[in-house]
UniProtKB/TrEMBL annotation:
Residues 224-267 are annotated as: Disordered. The keyword Nucleotide-binding applies. GO terms for cellular component: membrane. Keywords: GTP-binding, Hydrolase, Nucleotide-binding. This is p-loop containing nucleoside triphosphate hydrolase.
Length: 279
């Protein structure tokens, strides 16, 4: 059995935007309409993605302004950050700027520390020094089941994310829309950032949320195998059909093609229906 790779993820956003609902839907397959403000909760679980087992360490943080000062510095050392807002609340998207600024400062700190430790003679010696792994950022527009109350369009959320180098998804914890897929996207981007950093280049994200390495190397890491360039110059993720998730603490998120097989095509259509919140 393969050794699980650990991926730490901090979930942040304004109070009441659904951070805990997303977390509990992923961890326990549960959803509740009751709102209980979180100060900080931690969870761990395993997922199998693309044939590899990953140990996910999740930190669900406080959203209320009076609790944000309690953010531990350890939260900022996470591999990735899920920035959640409520599509019915424009102010919840504005609040994400504060969290994004903290994460960007952490990214600069990691790069500065790496450059301080870096051996200037390493290239002359022919060594390939491991670079710093920059934090991955994904924005999730939650509550996409509440279309009649939508106040932030998917286009607005996507543009906000692109301008800050974040990936983007819309989710519904209530209807289990893009929950597993969002965390699979996070894991794939962390894995790619680590791969780039292992080559000696500082990893990071470009304006479209793609991982960028040395000499502008880029890798599109959409949820499925397909991505398209739209008129806005944006890339829109299309979710490939997912294998049925077995019971138990470990679930598999391996993708497969839906072409050439009627059964798989029906699964593909079902997956596209799940993305109705994009339209």
């Amino acid at each position: 059995m393969d050794n699980p790779q650990k991926v730490s993820i901090t979930i942040c956003g304004d109070g009441g935007c659904g951070k805990s609902s997303i977390t509990l839907r992923l961890v326990r397959s549960q959803w509740t309409s009751e709102y209980d403000p979180t100060i900080e909760d931690s969870y761990s679980l395993t997922r199998r993605i693309d044939g590899q087992t990953y140990y996910l360490s999740l930190t669900d943080t406080a959203g209320q302004e009076e609790y944000r000062g309690m953010w531990a510095s350890s939260n900022l050392r996470s591999d990735a950050f899920l920035l959640v807002y409520d599509i019915t609340s424009p102010s919840s998207l504005d609040v994400l700027q504060e969290f994004n600024d903290l994460i960007d400062i952490e990214a600069e700190t990691r790069l500065d520390a790496w450059e301080h430790r870096r051996d200037p003679k390493s290239k002359k010696k022919g060594n390939r020094e491991t670079g710093p792994v920059q934090p991955i950022k994904i924005v999730a527009g939650n509550k996409c089941d509440l279309q009649e109350s939508r106040a932030v369009s998917a286009r607005e959320g996507l543009e906000w994310a692109r301008k800050r180098g974040c990936g983007f998804m819309e989710t519904s914890a209530r209807n289990t829309v893009n929950i597993e897929e969002t965390f699979a996207l996070i894991v794939r981007r962390v894995v790619e950032a680590r791969r780039i950093a292992a080559g000696g280049a500082p990893s990071g994200t470009g304006l479209d949320g793609n991982v960028v390495g040395e000499k502008g190397r880029r890798s599109m890491l959409s949820l499925g195998r397909h991505g398209s360039t739209e008129a806005l110059g944006t890339r829109r993720a299309v979710t490939a059909p997912l294998s049925p998730l077995p019971g138990g603490p470990e679930k598999s998120l391996e993708t497969e093609s839906g072409e050439g097989n009627p059964g798989k095509q029906s699964k593909f259509r079902a997956a596209l229906r799940k993305l109705a919140c994009w339209r």
